[in-house]
Amino acid sequence: MTRSRTPGRSANSPFGGKGALFAAIVVAMVAIPVAADVPAPKIPKGKGDKCVEPTPFMRRNHMELILHKRDETVHQGIRSTKYSLKECLNCHAVNDEQGQPVAFTDPRHFCTVCHSYASVSIDCFECHNSKPEPKAAATP
Amino acid sequence: MSKELTPTDSYRRRFLGGIGALAAAAFGSGVIVNVARARSPDEAVTGNQRWGMLIDTGKCADGCDECVKACNDENGVTGHGRPETDAQWIRTVTLREKATGRTTKLPMMCQHCEYPPCVDVCPTGASFRRDDGIVLVDKHLCIGCRYCMMACPYKARSFIHEVIMDQKHNAPRGKGTVESCTLCVHRIDKGETTTACQDACTKAGHNAILFGDLKDPNSEISKRLANEPSTQVRGDLGLNLGVRYQGI
Asked: How far from the centroid of its chain's Cα atoms is residue B186's Cα?
């Protein structure tokens, strides 16, 4: 039984004084993320009734759809609009105070809202324009 | 059961044979129809086309750079005033025959080889030739090693050294990747029949550039290539270029 231990023995045991420190660290590691929790992002609503797939599916799989589409488009010239990045941007554009769509560098951008919350960088906009195509020049 | 054919069986055979012949005929004509009609957006490109260009250097006017400007505008190719490193998809080149002093001016860009050296050397598969003959860089795969730039006999490719914002929607470009003339692939995929440089050249009244399908015997470019002399630059390399020149 632990109750039979002497105070001296308890202080020298590997689970004694150092153990308390260890326990404190574990508790801190668990507690800090809870303390530093940030509110879930407010996701801007897109245009139209619904997305090309149900929202829960899109949340998990949008990157797969875009990846698949990108290879088809670049290598085979398939330019259907379903799952195309351009269409994502067309529906999910967020406008600033002047009514102009914001770029991905703006924290209000549809993609940026979630990606900065999840701390996942977006490579798409290193090359692609992150704003919807102006209507006059819009192409399918 | 008897193995002999009943009258019904032979009727069935004739009937099915007839269907087969009809199907074969439909398929045969279908191939021809395919060449003529425009591709729908969800259809993959095929080898039934090979896009190419014919450039008449005799019509390429001195001091004119309309094609270069149009290309830069169409594809959002912007520079920083540093000609050594700024991207160029199309450039004008002036050749001078030493013996006679005759000069020839021509636009030079990706020649869209059938056997592209850039594709041979690319370590990631980013350089590729589309089935319809257009040589492209898949920038998703490009690691910016620039082997293709060294392999290209035409100095057709450029490397993007600096961060780019506000790209043209039809021409994504970004730092750390290689790029070159796409034969206005976004226009072709829409079913358009001209490139930006050809439009500009025609608008300027020179008509030096003609874009078209080398595999369609009825296209203007095929007819002209069949009836007029033309040259492939460095044809000795045996790359079978998509871009042909006249007057050099």
From this structure: 11
Q: How far apart are CA A38 and CA A3, in angstroms?
A: 43
- Per DSSP, A122 falls in state -
B175 chain-A contacts, CB cut-off 8 A: 126
Q: Locate the domains of chain B by residue range.
A: 1-37, 51-246
Question: Using the beta-carbon criterion (under 8 Å), do A128 and B167 form an inter-chain contact?
Answer: yes
Contacts of B137 in chain A (CB under 8 A): none
- How does strand B51-56 pair with strand B90-96? unpaired
- As assigned by CATH, the class of the B51-246 domain is alpha beta
Angle between helices A110-118 and A85-92 in degrees, nearest 10: 100
Strand partners, B52: B212
Residues of B in contact with A81 (CB under 8 A): 41
Q: Measured between beta carbons, which residues in chain B are less than 8 angstroms from residue A78? A: 41-44
Task: Say how far apart CA B193 and CA B189 lie, in whole Å.
Answer: 10
| DSSP three-state, residue B96 | strand
Global ipTM: 0.79
pLDDT values of chain A reduced to their tens digit, one per residue, 140 residues: 444 444 444 445 455 566 666 666 655 565 555 556 788 888 898 888 889 999 999 999 999 999 999 999 999 999 999 999 999 999 999 999 999 999 999 999 999 999 999 999 999 999 999 999 987 655 55
Q: How far is the alpha carbon of B66 from chain A, nearest alpha carbon, in Å?
A: 21
Tell me the pTM.
Answer: 0.78
A115 has a chain B CB within 8 A of its CB: no
Is B44 close to A78, i.e. CB distance below 8 A?
A: yes
Q: How many beta carbons lie within 10 A of that of residue B41, not counting itself? A: 16
- Distance of alpha carbon B183 from alpha carbon B116, whole angstroms: 15
CB contact under 8 A, A74 and B167: no
